[in-house]
Amino acid sequence: MEKETAGKILTGSTILKYLIIHWKCETAEVSKGALLEGQLVISIEALNSKHQANTLHCVTTIASAGSIYGGLVLKKFLKEIQSILHGFSAKLNWTSEEASYSQDTSGVTPFQMIFEVDEKPKTLMTDCLIIKNFLHKIIIVLPKIRFNFSVKVNGIFSMEIFDAPKFGTTELLCSRIHPVLGHPVVLFIPDDVAGMGLLGELILTPAAALCPCPKVFSNQLNRISSISIFLYGPLGLPLILPSQEQPTAAIFKDTSYFIDWKKYHLCVVPNLDLNLDGDLVLPDVSYQVESSEGDQSQNMDPQGQTLLLFLFVDFHSRFPVQQMELWGVQTLLTTHLSAIFMESHSAVQDSIQITVGQVLEHHHQAVKAHQKLQASLSVAVNSIMSIMTGSTSSSFRKICLQTLQATDTQEFRTKLHKSFHETTQHRFLHHCSCEVKQQLLPERDDAEQSTEDAHENSSLELLAGTSGQVGNKRLKGSSLHQGVEETRAFRSAGALSPSEAARRRAEATVSPLTPSRSRTGPGSGLEDALWLQEVSNLSEWLSPGPRP
Amino acid sequence: MAFAPSGPEASFFEVLDQHRASLLATLRRGGGEPAGGGTRLASSSEVLASIENIIQDVITSLARNEAPAFTIDNRSSWENIKFEDSVGLHMISHCTTRKIKSDSPKSVKNFALILKILSTIYKLVQSNTYATKRDIYYTDSQLFGNQTVVDNIINDISCMLKVPRRSLHILSTSKGLIAGNLRYIEEDGTKVNCTCATAVPVSSNIQGIRNLITDAKFLLIVEKDATFQRLLDDNFCNKMSPCIMVTPTSVFYHLKLKGKGVPDLNTRLLVKKLWDTFHIPVFSLVDADPHGIEIMCIYKYGSMAMSFEAHNLTVPAIRWLGLLPSDIKRLNIPKSTLIPMTKRDQMKLDSILKRPYVTCQPFWRKEMEIMGDSKMKAEIQALTFLSSDYLSRVYLPNKLKFGGWI
Known about the structure:
The complex is a heterodimer.
Chain A: H1 3-30, E1 38-48, E2 56-65, H2 74-84, E3 91-94, E4 112-119, H3 121-141, E5 145-153, E6 156-162, E7 180-181, E8 185-187, H4 191-194, E9 201-211, E10 224-232, E11 267-270, E12 285-290, H5 293-296, E13 305-316, H6 323-343, H7 345-390, H8 394-403, H9 409-431, H10 451-456, E14 460-462, E15 475-478, E16 488-492, H11 498-506, H12 526-542
Helix pairs in contact in A: 1-3, 7-9
Chain B: H1 14-29, H2 44-63, E1 69-73, E2 81-84, E3 88-91, E4 97-101, H3 108-127, E5 131-132, H4 133-139, H5 141-144, H6 147-161, E6 170-171, E7 177-180, E8 182-185, E9 191-194, E10 200-201, E11 210-213, E12 219-222, H7 225-233, H8 236-239, E13 244-247, H9 265-278, E14 282-285, H10 290-301, H11 310-313, E15 319-322, H12 325-330, E16 339-340, H13 343-353, H14 362-374, E17 376-377, H15 390-402
Parallel strand pairs in B: 5-6, 12-13, 12-14, 14-15
Antiparallel strand pairs in B: 1-4, 2-3, 7-10, 7-13, 8-9, 8-11, 16-17
Helix pairs in contact in B: 2-3, 3-6, 4-6, 10-13
Protein name (chain A): Type 2 DNA topoisomerase 6 subunit B-like isoform X5
Organism (chain A): Vicugna pacos
Region (Disordered) (chain A): 443-527
């Protein structure tokens, strides 16, 4: 790809990254620990260029809508963005008078920026796919930002809204993931990179999850069919763009560099067939899991589950971190990630291995539990069938058939099995870590209720708040090695006040990467709220602290 | 009654006869035998209908998209058990229950196993065949896991349907031994003549026994098989004729009773049947230790686990013949034959002392306190240190002649 074209491709996402860094810093200053929320509208209008053949003149507008904290100072913005996009020749126009620094206490500061580039149609198409994928990844960690992305090419209009990450098909009973957080490790910076003026340290925190939710994935034996790795830098910004020809992800070409998959009886190969064009989030690194011979005899689900591995690299410094420094870290990680990871290979490997191990152990337990359930239901169905078909009482048999609206015993068996499956699945869904406190479930007087059931309600509290600003805002991993079913507290000293921390610790939440939120109970509107809560804390966790 | 003439003179049994008269008088004052509660013998069609009703309930729940569940009485909870002097320990009418749910990961297997055993029972009853609990376990040992699971589920089903195990066509595996002056006809027509010289196994179908005939003056329940055999060898039954002697087969019942067992159901049913039919005095010969006392209490008052069937099993009229802790001192049994009580023994003793029925047995309480104070226990075999046949020649005859029971 030509340098100029490559630069143009990066423009949209670069500006978005800059905006997000800016907003995060501004948000943290105004309201400690608040989530970044608002709406960004990105529109590209392309018309055939009058000056060049087979070229589209693209006008890209990025505008805010809704409440966005902080304001952009135009001159500063232009200076900084041009230093980032060095050598880029597109035009940047600032059109909103409200773009000046707003003292409005409501914090509502709309703005709009427009820039123009000339691109080939195919390049524009690639641009759009890259931006879409970037937005997909952003909303995983910043779910309260809503992106409206529209493209109009010679009058043909299309629009997409990004406000919820898609990890799988929409037919799932539980569309949430339940990440397990790993232990943070300090990354050593190689000598040749250390000289780039980085006054702080890099911390890697892995998080792993299975998608879809294993406890609800029924009817088939769950198997891991693919592994997706997502790389994030400070403030939850994606590190790698798919089109970059970078050695950044070179280390991941060796599937066993950080994870010994054989320990989990997984045969993993790199998946090079990464297609930007899709509704699903495109991972930075993708592996395929090949079936072993022993698995083929079983009734395996061809689609299987995906192991998601999120690698968050954050930046900590004892000195106040400026926006541009954060930008520099982001750039550094984008270009030198491999080298940085290799420098701390052992620590990175341990942290990732343990995290993945926990998730796979949960998966194993979930498969066993599912098998146990299936076996039990099979016994129950066969026993009922034995009595029903063996009965000499025609009235009894008739009542049985009528109750399940079956015409014969064959149909009766099928409906019986289905009914058992549906009723138990519903209950197991409530046991799923995505559900609210156990108190909401009618299990109080059940002597069979065990502590295991209690633990099944995942209540992982993540009290986040990393910072590049002050030294005491340090990730404090505590008991991060517990499984999804147990309560974890991931507490930051500075992000939350003690009372807030205590409140969150007291509340049971099933959202592994979110701060505890009180739940209102099961209801139709709950799922959307739960989605936000599910990953919203990633942004809190990665938010910078207030400026001095 | 055409038994060979043997045994002591008639005057030997004077005290025994008085005791029997006293027991009968008590029964008459109490209005006869207490009304049967808890389980009752059910016909095959009743059992089949009950099982079908359960299945219908399960299917109805499923049709309503509700996870079906079984409601089972808490047999193992003291709060569900009351004591009545005439019955012993039995379940209260409105007892606490627990749910075995099909949609709980912990209980779904149990739920399925209950259905499995219900289907087995259904087939047995339908085909009028019988199986033991052991047979049922071996139909799918891998599925059940262990015998205790099967036993508990069968008891739960018996309690749930309010019918005795026999009505479910499930037989008790273990059998006791019986000897003495007794004859009867089994359900299948087999004639059983017990003798004084050798023992015959207790029938596995007590409820089917008919034409019971005896003129025994007493029934002696012997805790241990070794003691039973010793008495047989000493020709005790003949010397004390007419009498009946019975010993249960030990059944390991929970690991708490390591090395020893509780009385099997068939032996208990037989003792109960003999008492109900003939009202002959029943005595127990157990070791002077907490476990022996507990065995005796089970015969007399029943157990928590089987409290739902108390009316078919308990014989409150049983008296403690020996070995009494007070006999140890009275007979100058050598201290070297005594065994120090363990911590488990002490806990067991304390537990028995707290049971509701001990309050109406002051003499038993006193004996237990003697045992507790001495912190020593003794087996019946300790009497052999006085002489090898002391038990059958001296101890038991004197006890029976002079009313040495409590």
